[in-house]
Structure formats: structure tokens, C-alpha cells
Amino acid sequence: MIALTFSSPDPERLAGFWGGLLGQDVTIDRGAPSLAAPPEVGFGLRFVVGAGEKWGANQMHPDLKPTSVHEQASAVQRALESGARHLDVGQGPDAEHVVLADPDGNELCILEPGGSFLAGCPFFSSLAGDGVAEVGYFWRDALAWNLVWDQDGETAVQAPTGGPKITWGGEPVAPKLGRNRLHLDLTPSAPATIDAEVERLSALGATRVDAGCADGVGMADPGGNEFCVVG
After folding, report:
1. Which of 45, 50, 198, 213 would give a disulfide with 35, using CB separation of 3.0 to 4.6 Å?
2. pTM, whole model, 2 decimals?
3. Domains of the chain as residue ranges with CATH
4. How far apart are CA 100 and CA 26, in angstroms?
5. Residues contacting residue 184 through CB under 8 Å, at least 6 positions apart
6. CA–CA separation, 184 vs 202, rounded Å?
7. Calpha distance 77→79 (Å, rounded)
């Protein structure tokens, strides 16, 4: 199993924001506010206490893809009314996608409808990451997902059953100056233990690090991005 975890100074507030934006109820998973993974999404969201000042743009951010211009405008309005704000990352006035920051300042994009790359993906269409191809190959093997894009250093993986894609943009990669606010949690498939999963991931190129995992083992992928192996 896989979950996307947000470290936040106010997890309950941030969970409420994302629940409202995605149209999901907030539940409690392993003691943390969470959004369950619907069948078409592929991973749930968890919100845990943490995160100091942002040191720069997050190494990964959610992309939301509406099916119409009306749905895009509605999603932007819903986000702004729930505490988001517009964010200028150099996209320019003619950009058709909308860049926002959630109440904690985490970047997210509400994309324009259309296009083929994310065709068939749900509203939470992708998790866009900053990393070279080696990182994409690692996550392909770590998750046993399909490599659905591999071109000019850019990679993307997707679960065999579909759902959102996780993408990496290739070079250049922005310098990483602190612990990521967003990270992935991996739960070993039965009957594997946490120790066995850590050993497997280490063989794929991960390293053990202090990732602030309250209930698991901290690791980092080949790009230095933290993640947690949890029970």
C-alpha cells in the first residue's frame, strides 16, 4: 500500500482543506487525519504534525485535472474559499493551468482540461516530482508500477490498475535544502515484514535516513527524497 503524507503545523485544518477540494470525508488512520484512497486514485492522503518554514518549492506537488473549463473554475473557487491563494511560479499570464498554494503554502496545480498525457486519470491526476530518471526507475520497482513515460530524462509511473501518475521532470533538479513536507509512506504487502521491505528497498538503491517517521523506518530514494516504511 502507498499513501501521500503531508507534514503540517495544523494537520486537521489541512486535511479539511484537501477533503473539501477532493470531495472526501476526513477519517483517522494510524492516529492521523486521513483521506481514504478511492478505487480510482491509488493512494490515500495522511496529515501529520510537522513542517517548519518552507525552504523552497516542494520536491513534489499534486496536479488536479478537471474535465471542463467550468469544473476547473469551480475547483479554483472552492480552493480559494477554503484557504488557498494564487501563487506565481513564473507560469506567465497566458498559462491555462492555475497554480495555487494550500493553507500551508504547499504548491498545487489545477490543470486545464484536455491533453493526452493524463487522459483517463482521475481528478487527482498526478503527483509531479522533481527528479532524474533514476528516481523514476527506483519507484517503478519499489511500487511494482508500470513505467508509462521515459523520454529525455523525464519519467512517470502508474499503477497497473490505472489511477494517478507519479512523474519526475528530469534535469535540472532544484537543490534540496531540507526535509520534504510531502513524502510517501509504503506499507509492505503481507506477509512481508518492515525489516524485509527495508532490505528490499535498500537493494533497489534506497538508503536509511532520519525522515521523521513516527511509526516506521525512514528512508530516502536515490534523489534524496524521504519516505517511510510503516506497518
Report:
1. 45
2. 0.93
3. 2-168 (3.10.180.10), 182-230 (3.10.180.10)
4. 22
5. 2, 3, 4, 5, 43, 227, 228
6. 16
7. 5
